[in-house]
Amino acid sequence: MRLERSVRESAIFQFARYAAFVLGAVAVTPASAAWDQDGQAEWAQRYDADARLTVSRSTTPILSAHTVAATEAAIERLREIAADGGWPQVPAGQQLRLGSNSPVVSALRRRLVISGDIGAETGASPVFDSYVEAAVRRFQARHGIIPTGVVNQQTVQALNVPAETRLKQLETNLVRLRSFSHGLGNRYVTANIPAASVETVENGEVVTHHMAGVGKIDRQSPVMQTKAIQVNFNPFWTVPASVIRKDLIPKMQADPNYLNANHIRVYSKDNQELQPEQINWRSLDALNFRFRQDIGGDFNSLGVVRIDIANPYGVYMHDTPAKGVFGDDFRFVSSGCIRLQNVRDYVAWLLKETPGWDRDHIDEVIASGERVDVKITPAVPVYWVYITAWAAPDGVTQFRDDIYQRDGLGLRSAGADSPASTVVQAARPMRGEGQFPSDDDSYFEERSR
């Protein structure tokens, strides 16, 4: 009887291990999304305790001595892999998913074994089973790709970057990381542009994570060190000259009701309100006027909050009514400013030491619809950085596309070839016009779809 129970318990244990191994990889799907009171997507995530499959959200700041040390260790591992011949290429041309049966799956397995995303004990079968799916999810999570477990064009492109190139990418970024490893302050914000993500840091640990929308390839977000100095609740948005020229004039030529539909008012230099029909839209006459969008989180391109950061580029951080961008792989969509997911959590953290501004009060002010400006006391250091490769103390190495082509390695993103992006140009963030000087031309594109 004792032997029978032991065998039964062993079988149950083995099955539990198998189930955990198969199901434990990061799973992020639209069906698992919850929505907060601000209408922003909160993506449910499932993680397994097995370190081979887990890419959990690290509490170690990307700018820290711990990340530097972890990246140095990752470089040594990659040097060994490169010295042994690197990893095989995965043939492109077919989409692989659970149930696929192809020799390409065997090549995929070998590739994932070498990079540590799957164990060698899972074999070399040509069948795309749940072990491979879990490993693909892990790989995708490490490369900033939504972890679907399906091997698509973007995933194949990331898989086929040679080990030697990934090694150079880590070495290049180690220099950047070392320059930011000390003296950042007890409380600070890091916006990593290639990862299109923002984190708040306090006492050496990440407090909040935020997906972000950052500058387009031809309207790049700047690398800078600055401070968050003020929060504008329920802000107006004044359309910058660049957006008037490139977007507003063509929109009005196509639809004379466009301004009214988007709650945008026209003002003369004397601050007198005009009617849209008083402007010659077949010329550049519109550049002589000021266009201001009314307050309103459902339609205002700044959403319900704008965070003022001191800088010479005319950029800032803000909410957006276009929340769908946070569920995309390719989030290079703005004119240089940074849009924030879960902006209320971010603002609550910024105002944590500002008397009288707890989360309840923040929600009340937003709900009131009134324009309110709050000075952040004390101002919080903010770092906009360009880090495309790093490692965490848990051994997980992360890579992102060199979207602005600053690593000098010729890496290109599959997303960079999409209609959402444009040809890479030598561009700098634009100084805007009026009260809110920069973002956001892509807002008009989204509103017209």
From TrEMBL:
Keywords: Cell shape, Cell wall biogenesis/degradation, Peptidoglycan synthesis, Signal, Transferase. Pathway: Cell wall biogenesis; peptidoglycan biosynthesis. The keyword Cell wall biogenesis/degradation applies. Residues 187-375 form the L,D-TPase catalytic domain. The active site is at residues 318, 337. PANTHER family: L,D-TRANSPEPTIDASE HI_1667-RELATED (PTHR41533), L,D-TRANSPEPTIDASE YCBB-RELATED (PTHR41533:SF1). It comes from Methylocystis hirsuta. Residues 1-33 form the signal peptide. Belongs to the YkuD family. One of its GO terms (molecular function) is carboxypeptidase activity. This is Murein L,D-transpeptidase. One of its GO terms (biological process) is peptidoglycan biosynthetic process. Residues 413-449 are annotated as: Disordered.
